[in-house]
Design a protein that fits this description.
- By secondary structure, the protein is α/β, with parallel strands linked by helices.
- α8 runs parallel beside α9 and α9 packs antiparallel against α10.
- It is globular and about 55 Å long.
- The N and C termini lie far apart (about 60 Å).
Length: about 300
Amino acid sequence: MTQPRVIFVIMTYNQAQFVRPAVESALAQDFSPLEILISDDASYDGTWEIIREIADAYEGPHQIRLNRNSKNLSVDHIRHLTNELAGPGFFFLGAGDDVYMPNRVSRLMEIQRETGALAISSAAHKIDASGKRIGEHPPEHIRKLKGDCSIETFIEAKLIPASFGAGLMWHSDLLEIFGPIPDGPRNSDEIMPFRAALLGKAAYTPEALLYWRKHSNNKTLQFRRGANEVATLLLKEREIQNKMANFTSFIHDTMTLEQRTGATPQLANIRTELAMHLITLNSAHKQLRHDLARRGWGVV
């Protein structure tokens, strides 16, 4: 039987403090054959040099590919990789500040064979900058979903347990069916699980298969303690804009699937629910703009 192509993608940017254990844990995966694609987003703090040092010294079974962007792509880094560099296969996403269990790939591939899922995510242990355990992911409101990754759960809760990018893997069939990851401030962490759920092929395991590092320079959107009122509102605006872009993409995905499989009442109902939530997000965004304008920031 032909082995599927499996790619572990580690994306890095100015993570010299953390990148060594991240890359070494990717290289320590017990699954084979495995490609390791390490892509640096134009770091300037020594991250790239550490990556090259580790790669040059590696003598294990995995195939290593290195990429360094000539300029910082920020949110478009993942889109650039999956749409232009990596090719077909199963993508295991990783960051240069997290640490991975040696069975992360093998365990999720085992679940994939059992379920046929095209997007799967796992739980994680949260650690701080020093590596100390500080909690678990997912939080309680996601644990209450009990691993349910159905499209019905997504519509009701506006997320599913698989919507966790740090622990996510997905198959390039999701690009083939729905098209490339859209440009702009969208979040593939949610787009790919949604697409899989729409096909009835999303899954989740409560096993913690990585250490998810939380520190002051995380690239994920988060509210920073001590930020002033305007800064907090601007962060909220970024989050809402990101959600609006995602839900616009979700609506487009239902239309794409409809073109491939034909119209169904279920797809029409899903699109209506998504559109209603997008209207709610748009109203919240308008209110934020009013709040910012009252504080002398921007124009209503």
